[in-house]
Amino acid sequence: MAQREIARVYDASLRPTRGGLERATREVGDAARSLEKMVGRARTRHEQRAWMLRTATFAAAAGLLAFPLLAFLLARALPFGDLPDSLAASALGGTAGRPVWG
After folding, report:
1. Pairwise CA distance, residues 3 & 60, whole Å
2. Vertex 60, ends 58 and 63: CA angle to 5°?
3. CB burial of residue 1 (10 Å; 0-12, 13-18, 19+)
4. ∠ Cα 24 20 22 (to 5°)
5. What is the pTM of this model?
6. Looking at beta carbons, which pairs linking 35-41 to residues 24 or more positions away fall under 8 Å?
7. What's the CA gap between 94 and 91, in Å, rounded?
């Protein structure tokens, strides 16, 4: 009987401490999950930044290669596409539309 009473008093005295320990354990777990989310986001941001840098580099290289080709084709398709040729011919003393040497 005395042992049961001692066990009951012991459990009653530890109950507030046990509750505080359980609460602290939950808080540490929540903080750990929050930290994992932050680290995961930082890693994702780094990967996104690297992907954007690779994409921008590829786009710039493609633009530098494609612009001269497309600009030439576009200039020839416009109604005044022969303007550079006629200006060059007139500068050399010829007439536009006819070869200067021929």
Report:
1. 83
2. 105
3. exposed
4. 55
5. 0.40
6. none
7. 7
Please give the Cα distance from 40 to 47 (Å, whole number): 11
Q: How confident is the model at residue 97 (pLDDT cuts 50, 70, 90)?
A: low
Place of tokens 């303007």: 83
Task: Report the b/e string of 9-48 with b at 16+ CB within 10 A.
Answer: eeeeeeeeeeeeeeeeeeeeeeeeeeeeeeeeeeeeeeee
Q: How confident is the model at residue 55 (pLDDT cuts 50, 70, 90)?
A: very high
Give the start-to-end residue ranges of the domains of the chain: 2-91
pLDDT at 61 (0 to 100): 96
